Amino acid sequence: MTKGFPKGFLWGGAVAANQCEGAYNQDGKGLSTQDIAPKGIMGGVTEEPTKDNMKLIGIDFYHRYKEDIKLFAEMGFKVFRTSIAWSRIFPNGDDAKPNEKGLQFYDDLFDECLKYGMQPLVTISHYETPLALAKNYDGWVNRKLIGFFENYVRTIFARYKNKVKYWLTFNEINSVLNAPYMSGGIFTDKEKLTKQDLYQAIHHELVASAMAVKIGHEMIPGAKFGCMILGVPNYPLTPHPSDVMEAMKQDRENLYFADIHARGAYPKYMDRYFKDNNIKIHREPGDKEILKNTVDFISFSYYMSSCATADPKKKKNSKGNIISGVANPYLEASQWGWQIDPQGLRYILNLFYDRYEKPLFIVENGLGAVDELITDENGNKTVIDDYRIKYLNDHLVQVAEAIEDGVEIMGYTSWGCIDLVSATTAELRKRYGFIYVDRNDDGTGTLERYKKKSFNWYKEVISTNGESLIKK
């Protein structure tokens, strides 16, 4: 038994449009940056969409969302996090008018959620910029994207203001430091991209994010608007002061995005970073005032922690979710080398809440693993994913501990609540879901859905508001 989850806690699951919808060229959708990136976040791009790009079909959520939402409702989801594909609404990003069929799809999707009493939690930009904006403007390097983004958000806020009351601006916005193409739609090769251009692009995104919050508060007064941060706490590898300073430095690389969203201004420590790296951010009149439009809550992903050291001889990297660091000798790792650290979730929850005193929302957390579909004694196809149950149980116990610590947490949406195409590797064999999707990396499979053992486990967690969790 554990305690701590408040009444009204928003239990649910999370997906991203580009990883599940498919239908990449249907009903007027334009190409996105994802449609020519068949190997995942770091895998490079192709000239045109290719058959080996699993995301072109995904799990066909575009056509099968009704059966999937019904399964989520069966688990008891209070909230469903998904994203809007920008290029479904504005195929080229800079179009004069939106695509009505794209708008209608999300109307239908949100209606289906609300039919079951499930609140949509919508990410406005989740790793897919319209490809034309990347090619023609170099993505967020160009300030013109702020205007295109404003047009986009005004369009979707006007359309869905009566259906969506929880919004996130940019998914894992700090990931642009490591994945400028996927996160920022920046077409310039990562190796050729200057720090000046990168941090100027970041400034444009931050202004656009704050502008979206301002517009959202004006257009949908009762709605809540949050930022979304890739959360990876950094521990010093040793007590050596140099390692402690290195951990602080690496934390600040990520925290400065949240600092601006939550506090409304650039933190002073960035002055030195910009000076040391000869970066001069160009700010237009009004930018400073726009940034003061702070978020209502801070959301983040959490999969792993990392270690930091100033000793170059010890900098043996561990694998991770876009951001990688030094391996922690005290932790085990997943099949993909991501170190498993449930206590790190409690730590980062306390870190964020101590720093900002704003409500927090865990919008991604889960275990990617190779699942084996079997037939049980009743003749039903399923997956015995006790490893996933243990991972999620142990992390949720730490969430309960953080609530006991005094941290205000709005909810928890497990990542990839149904199997989808991995963002980092573009594989389907790296599965996160409570629901198995019969599709393989070679493109074979029926796309049928099967409940895993974790399906009923999570259903019980939700129905008991966390009381069924096993606390060791």
From TrEMBL:
This protein's UniProt keywords:
Glycosidase, Hydrolase
Which superkingdom, per the lineage? Bacteria
Return one Gene Ontology term, BP aspect.
carbohydrate catabolic process
Q: Which InterPro entries match?
A: GH, GH_1_N_CS, Glyco_hydro_1, Glyco_hydro_1_AS
Gene Ontology annotations for the cellular component aspect, listed alphabetically: cytosol
Transmembrane region positions?
Answer: none
Single GO term (MF): beta-glucosidase activity
Catalytic residue positions: E364
Pfam family, any one: Glyco_hydro_1
Instruction: Spell out the family assignment given in the record's similarity comment.
Output: Belongs to the glycosyl hydrolase 1 family.
Q: What is this protein called?
A: 6-phospho-beta-glucosidase
The organism encoding this protein is Clostridium tagluense
Upper lineage: Bacteria, Bacillati, Bacillota, Clostridia, Eubacteriales
